[in-house]
Amino acid sequence: MPIIVPLLLAVALFCIGVYGVLARRNAITMLMSFELMLNAVTLNLVAFDAWRVDGLATGQTLAVFVITLAAAEIGLGLAIILLLFRGHGHVDADAARDLVEAAPGEHTEVEQ
Protein backbone atom coordinates (compact mmCIF):
# COMPACT_ATOMS: atom_id res chain seq x y z
CA MET A 1 0.00 0.00 0.00
CA PRO A 2 1.38 3.47 -0.81
CA ILE A 3 2.16 5.69 2.15
CA ILE A 4 -0.13 8.45 0.89
CA VAL A 5 -3.30 6.56 1.88
CA PRO A 6 -2.68 6.44 5.67
CA LEU A 7 -1.25 9.97 5.57
CA LEU A 8 -4.38 11.34 3.91
CA LEU A 9 -6.52 9.49 6.45
CA ALA A 10 -4.43 10.98 9.25
CA VAL A 11 -4.82 14.48 7.78
CA ALA A 12 -8.59 14.00 7.59
CA LEU A 13 -8.73 12.77 11.20
CA PHE A 14 -6.58 15.64 12.41
CA CYS A 15 -8.68 18.24 10.57
CA ILE A 16 -11.90 16.80 12.01
CA GLY A 17 -10.31 16.95 15.47
CA VAL A 18 -9.21 20.57 15.04
CA TYR A 19 -12.69 21.52 13.84
CA GLY A 20 -14.22 19.78 16.85
CA VAL A 21 -11.98 21.64 19.29
CA LEU A 22 -12.50 25.05 17.69
CA ALA A 23 -16.21 24.87 16.84
CA ARG A 24 -17.74 22.98 19.76
CA ARG A 25 -18.27 24.22 23.28
CA ASN A 26 -19.16 20.94 24.95
CA ALA A 27 -16.19 19.69 26.97
CA ILE A 28 -16.86 16.03 26.18
CA THR A 29 -16.90 16.76 22.45
CA MET A 30 -13.64 18.65 22.84
CA LEU A 31 -12.06 15.64 24.59
CA MET A 32 -13.21 13.36 21.77
CA SER A 33 -11.68 15.79 19.28
CA PHE A 34 -8.36 15.71 21.14
CA GLU A 35 -8.49 11.93 20.95
CA LEU A 36 -9.03 12.12 17.19
CA MET A 37 -5.97 14.32 16.84
CA LEU A 38 -3.87 11.93 18.94
CA ASN A 39 -5.09 9.00 16.83
CA ALA A 40 -4.00 10.88 13.69
CA VAL A 41 -0.52 11.30 15.19
CA THR A 42 -0.41 7.60 16.07
CA LEU A 43 -1.45 6.66 12.54
CA ASN A 44 1.33 8.84 11.13
CA LEU A 45 3.91 7.25 13.41
CA VAL A 46 2.93 3.72 12.45
CA ALA A 47 2.68 4.58 8.73
CA PHE A 48 6.15 6.11 8.64
CA ASP A 49 7.55 3.18 10.63
CA ALA A 50 6.06 0.71 8.13
CA TRP A 51 7.33 2.80 5.21
CA ARG A 52 10.86 3.03 6.61
CA VAL A 53 11.60 -0.61 7.29
CA ASP A 54 14.67 -0.67 9.51
CA GLY A 55 13.83 -3.24 12.17
CA LEU A 56 13.92 -0.83 15.11
CA ALA A 57 10.13 -0.29 15.37
CA THR A 58 10.68 3.28 16.53
CA GLY A 59 7.32 4.51 15.25
CA GLN A 60 5.46 1.69 16.94
CA THR A 61 7.23 2.37 20.22
CA LEU A 62 6.34 6.05 20.03
CA ALA A 63 2.76 5.08 19.14
CA VAL A 64 2.51 3.10 22.39
CA PHE A 65 3.66 6.19 24.29
CA VAL A 66 1.05 8.32 22.49
CA ILE A 67 -1.67 5.80 23.37
CA THR A 68 -0.55 5.88 27.01
CA LEU A 69 -0.61 9.67 26.96
CA ALA A 70 -4.11 9.62 25.46
CA ALA A 71 -5.36 7.27 28.17
CA ALA A 72 -3.96 9.50 30.91
CA GLU A 73 -5.40 12.61 29.23
CA ILE A 74 -8.89 11.14 28.93
CA GLY A 75 -8.85 9.97 32.55
CA LEU A 76 -7.85 13.38 33.85
CA GLY A 77 -10.17 15.21 31.46
CA LEU A 78 -13.19 13.13 32.42
CA ALA A 79 -12.45 13.68 36.11
CA ILE A 80 -12.41 17.44 35.56
CA ILE A 81 -15.62 17.29 33.51
CA LEU A 82 -17.37 15.23 36.20
CA LEU A 83 -16.37 17.74 38.87
CA LEU A 84 -17.61 20.58 36.66
CA PHE A 85 -20.93 18.85 36.05
CA ARG A 86 -21.46 17.92 39.70
CA GLY A 87 -20.68 21.41 40.91
CA HIS A 88 -22.44 23.51 38.28
CA GLY A 89 -24.75 21.23 36.29
CA HIS A 90 -23.20 21.86 32.87
CA VAL A 91 -20.14 20.97 30.82
CA ASP A 92 -19.97 24.14 28.71
CA ALA A 93 -16.35 25.10 28.09
CA ASP A 94 -17.11 28.83 27.77
CA ALA A 95 -18.93 28.94 31.09
CA ALA A 96 -16.13 26.99 32.77
CA ARG A 97 -13.73 29.82 31.97
CA ASP A 98 -15.77 32.14 34.18
CA LEU A 99 -15.56 29.86 37.24
CA VAL A 100 -12.23 31.15 38.51
CA GLU A 101 -12.28 31.72 42.25
CA ALA A 102 -11.29 35.16 43.50
CA ALA A 103 -8.45 35.47 45.96
CA PRO A 104 -9.39 36.43 49.53
CA GLY A 105 -10.08 40.15 49.68
CA GLU A 106 -10.80 40.48 45.94
CA HIS A 107 -14.32 41.03 44.69
CA THR A 108 -15.65 39.68 41.44
CA GLU A 109 -18.11 41.52 39.21
CA VAL A 110 -21.00 39.40 40.47
CA GLU A 111 -20.37 40.20 44.15
CA GLN A 112 -20.16 43.97 43.66
Automatic annotation (TrEMBL):
The reaction(s) catalysed by this protein are: a quinone + NADH + 5 H(+)(in) = a quinol + NAD(+) + 4 H(+)(out)
State the similarity comment.
Belongs to the complex I subunit 4L family.
Query: Which UniProt keywords are given for this protein, alphabetically ordered?
Result: Cell membrane, Membrane, NAD, Quinone, Translocase, Transmembrane, Transmembrane helix, Transport
InterPro entries found in the cross-reference section: NADH_UbQ_OxRdtase_chain4L/K, NUOK/Mnh_C1-like
Q: What does this protein do?
A: NDH-1 shuttles electrons from NADH, via FMN and iron-sulfur (Fe-S) centers, to quinones in the respiratory chain. The immediate electron acceptor for the enzyme in this species is believed to be a menaquinone. Couples the redox reaction to proton translocation (for every two electrons transferred, four hydrogen ions are translocated across the cytoplasmic membrane), and thus conserves the redox energy in a proton gradient.
The name under which this protein is listed is NADH-quinone oxidoreductase subunit K
Q: Where are the transmembrane segments?
A: 62-85
Question: Which EC number applies?
Answer: 7.1.1.-
Classify the protein's membrane topology as the record does. Answer: Multi-pass membrane protein
Say if the entry is tagged with keyword Membrane.
yes
User: Where this protein primarily resides, as one coarse class?
Assistant: membrane
| Gene name of the encoded protein | nuoK_2
Entries under HAMAP family matching the protein: NDH1_NuoK
Q: How does it assemble?
A: NDH-1 is composed of 14 different subunits. Subunits NuoA, H, J, K, L, M, N constitute the membrane sector of the complex.
Where in or outside the cell? Cell membrane; Membrane
